[in-house]
């Protein structure tokens, strides 16, 4: 039977071909192809685990994210100069609004906050009303409108008549709505395109058998998803060059056009997507479950009627919202929904540390750009330096995904999520510590010392090349912490709450922007050493607390995953596809 025929049969007739085999209890459309069989418990412990190939539909979603990030980073790349510096000032960096570094950093933090607050609205609309596909389409149109406002108000006539600042603020608000509605849905949607849930064994061409593991496949999907984000992030190279050599309107026109292409690319894949229907009013139902759980628990405690589990221990307060425990038949939710909500809440706990991580990460889009402006960047704009970060990620993610992470697994050292996140936090703290050292060195150099880049002052006698290690450290921190956060938000969220939990994770970036406002008073000369040093210290302290609070999650979740797996029977070499119908 040809490969094409195998694919067609495995997609259209999985239940008929494997009738009698036990399928995954919640995903009964799992299937096998030629040279595959369900994995036994022995296979899981003895064979090498690998990720699966990515489905075509996932590539369409990844392409959409690339286009959206191309647009986002393309417009934000010039923001710091656009706001901070004056328009066409001789012997100065490009600019338009002449608002100074405080205003530039403040508006930048506001925009980051807004862009990562709005995913909550996008998640609610998708999960309750429109579904992910329609929500992404609607908010992409909103995104295009915001980009048009920004482009039109950045033309020379608008800048000369004072339209640049109000136009920028309006555009930030509209664009924030657009990108937020996309971000909370595109991340879970890309992983939903991989529809195989039960572990299976595949025989490779060399005769070796390996276990194809969904966990590793999802991890790989998010690695490549993040890779696409950073390829799109390179758009800032083009837009900062356009800002310097043409004007800001040209810099913003390019990502605006890409936003149109984003919409076209996404719609083209519509017939290939796995579409998950909206599940109704999850937010309202979740609120009622929490209220019922608290009320019933307090009542049971007051009446000394606490419920015990099988081990004789009191059940958690949320269990009291279960119809089977409360004996309240009027509830419109099930025991399973309560368990899913508890899983979602527990998963969200680890996100509390992320605002401090994003506080450090956000420095690359504001204070590190200004820092580069205090040094000799040669013939390139100072804000082009931030693109070292996505370049490093583009190079490093394939290395980690194909070489380093598999090497750890071969040695029996599985880097579970909490471990990876902790490593990422360490790299973030080191990046900010190194940035503080750079800033100190800048202040010791002439001719402007701690006033370099202020007003009409030029740069000090030091090469901006010394910034490169800071961006490498930030890139490493993203690979371990940011990618794993996306993966964790998807894998640990119940099916009915994927977008909601993802939006909570994205909201932590808004928390980082709020923290950034607290640093606004020291986000300028001569206080930048203090700015970077305090952020580094905070990140270091948070890393230690995070690890000791959540290190047990890795073992607990590994055990839960093992308990939830559905295994094949011993000797069950299911490869029925090799026989003709």
Mean pLDDT value: 85
Assembly state here? single chain
- Poorly predicted spans: 1-25, 570-581
Number of DSSP strands? 4
Q: Strand-residue fraction? A: under 5%
**Radius of gyration, whole Å:** 26 Å
Give a structural overview.
The protein has 581 residues and is mainly α. The protein is 64% helix and 2% strand. Strand 3 and strand 4 (209-212) form a beta hairpin.
Features:
disordered N terminus, 4 strands, 581 residues, single chain, four-stranded mixed β-sheet, globular, mainly alpha
Question: Short description, anyone?
Answer:
This protein is mainly alpha-helical. The protein has helices spanning 3-12, 14-17, 41-46, 56-76, 79-84, 100-117, 119-152, 156-160, 164-192, 214-233, 235-245, 248-268, 282-302, 323-326, 335-349, 354-361, 367-373, 388-410, 417-443, 468-491, 498-518, 528-550, 552-564, and strands at 36-38, 48-50, 200-203, 209-212.
């Amino acid at each position: 039977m040809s490969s094409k025929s195998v694919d067609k049969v495995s997609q259209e007739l999985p239940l008929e071909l494997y009738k009698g085999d036990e399928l995954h209890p919640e995903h009964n459309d799992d299937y096998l192809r030629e040279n595959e069989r369900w994995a036994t418990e022995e296979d899981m412990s003895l064979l090498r685990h690998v990720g699966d190939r990515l489905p075509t539909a996932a590539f369409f979603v990844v392409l959409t994210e690339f286009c959206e990030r191309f647009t986002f980073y393309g417009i934000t790349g010039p923001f710091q100069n656009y706001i901070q510096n004056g328009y066409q000032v001789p012997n100065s960096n490009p600019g338009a609004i002449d608002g100074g570094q405080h205003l530039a950093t403040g508006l930048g933090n506001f925009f980051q906050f807004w862009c990562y607050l709005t995913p909550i609205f996008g998640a609610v609309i998708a999960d309750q009303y429109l579904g992910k596909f329609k929500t992404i389409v609607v908010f992409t149109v909103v995104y295009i409108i915001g980009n048009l406002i920004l482009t039109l108000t950045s033309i020379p006539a608008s800048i000369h008549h004072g339209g640049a600042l109000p136009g920028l603020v309006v555009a930030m608000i509209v664009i924030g709505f657009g990108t937020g509605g996309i971000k909370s849905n595109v991340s879970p949607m890309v992983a939903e395109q991989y529809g195989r849930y039960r572990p299976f064994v595949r025989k490779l061409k060399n005769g070796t058998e390996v276990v194809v593991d969904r966990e590793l496949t999802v991890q790989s999907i998010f690695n490549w998803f993040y890779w696409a984000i950073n390829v799109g992030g390179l758009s800032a190279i083009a837009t900062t060059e356009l800002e310097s050599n043409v004007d800001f309107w040209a810099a913003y026109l390019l990502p605006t056009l890409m936003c149109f292409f984003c919409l076209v690319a996404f719609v083209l894949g519509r017939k290939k997507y796995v579409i998950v229907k909206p599940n109704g009013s999850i937010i309202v139902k979740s609120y009622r479950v929490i209220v019922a759980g608290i009320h019933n628990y307090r009542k049971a405690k007051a009446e000394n009627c606490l419920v015990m589990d099988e081990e004789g221990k009191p059940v958690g307060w949320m269990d009291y919202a279960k119809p089977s425990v409360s004996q309240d038949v009027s509830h419109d939710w099930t025991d399973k929904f309560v368990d899913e909500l508890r899983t979602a809440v527990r998963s969200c706990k680890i996100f509390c540390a992320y605002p401090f991580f994003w506080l450090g990460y956000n420095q690359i889009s504001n204070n590190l750009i200004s820092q580069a402006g205090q040094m000799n960047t040669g013939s390139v704009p100072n804000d082009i330096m931030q693109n070292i970060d996505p370049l490093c990620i583009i190079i490093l993610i394939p290395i980690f995904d194909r070489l380093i992470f598999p090497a750890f697994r071969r040695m029996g050292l599985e880097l579970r999520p909490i471990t990876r996140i902790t490593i990422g936090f360490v790299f973030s703290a080191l990046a900010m510590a190194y940035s503080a050292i750079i800033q100190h060195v800048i202040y010791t150099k002439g001719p402007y010392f701690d006033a370099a880049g202020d007003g009409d002052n030029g740069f000090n006698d030091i090469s901006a090349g010394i910034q490169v290690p800071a961006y490498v450290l930030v890139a490493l921190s993203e690979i371990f912490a940011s990618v794993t956060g996306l993966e964790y938000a998807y894998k640990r969220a119940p099916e009915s709450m994927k977008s909601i939990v993802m939006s909570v994770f994205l909201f932590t970036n808004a928390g980082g922007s709020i923290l950034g406002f607290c640093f606004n008073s020291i986000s300028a000369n001569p206080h930048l050493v203090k700015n970077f040093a305090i952020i580094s210290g905070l990140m270091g302290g948070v890393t230690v607390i995070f690890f000791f609070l959540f290190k047990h999650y890795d073992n607990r979740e590994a055990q839960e995953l093992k308990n939830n797996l559905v295994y094949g029977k011993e000797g069950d070499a299911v490869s029925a596809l090799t026989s003709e119908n």
